[in-house]
Amino acid sequence: MINSVRNTVFSVLNKNNYGYISPQDFNLFAKQAQLEIFENYFSNYNTAINKENARVSGTEYANNTKSIEESIDVFSTIRNFDRKAYNRYFTPSQATTGDDYYLLNKVLAYTTLLKAGTNQGTSSPNLLVDSGFNGIVSVGDIAVNLVTLEQSIVVAVSNTTLNLEDNIFPQVIANNDGYSIFKPENYEVEKVTNSKISMLANSLLTAPTKTFPAYSLNNDSITVLPNTINNPGQVFSQYIRYPKDPKWTYSTLSSGEPVFDQSQSDYQDFELPVEDEVNLVTKILQYSGMQIREAQVVQFANLEEQKDNQQ
Question: What are the helix (H) ranges across the chain?
Fold first, then answer.
């Protein structure tokens, strides 16, 4: 989609010789446009819910709430948290999970650690190899790779090998990935403000327990109570991540013009649905018009955005 958006933007700009936008500038504008549309999903979702509650929204194909939910769900991710120190766990970031989070929708914790160790196997798909699994691990338990923070369900058990539903140990020869195995029972961890977490913990009646845990959010981590929840891989979350930065890539020049090449290693398409292509074009034109100081381009893009909002 990114090449189609760029071609449309350049078609509008070149129609009246407004100016040229370099690939680097286009990628910056594309990133900002995607972020703006992404963040609008949540305010639009709130508006749609209010209309639904007021019984003024449509149903079936006119159900705007469902459409926005599906757009947001593209960015829904379930990942285990990397432990920072004892009962503190890093929140999702480029350094830990490979993406930044917009919203921690749910934080959950497994209650029972069954076994921990290091995968001793080869890079055979879907296998976890160690010893002493019989009588400890059962089908349906959860295995967590402590390096990639991915998790998978155990589907078969022998004393030395676990068969997993997903291949979460693809490079065990190189890094000897550590693992943790938990009972599948988990409980939602309730968010508590930092000003109340100490008071909650010191209360005999409201102190967090394994079945009613709580957490407070810090700069780059969460602190989970009770502090018996402290094993690597024990805490995980369903969160909404930010979209990846789009990047239009090229490899050669033709008549002085870059030629689109999506085979480049750093190529990244937009992650928004196709129906947002018009919005992307409009917003990139707004940024482009401001850069080349063409008020007509900005006015045209603003008019198109108003038309789209009225539909």
Answer: 2-15, 23-53, 64-73, 172-175, 194-202, 277-291, 295-310
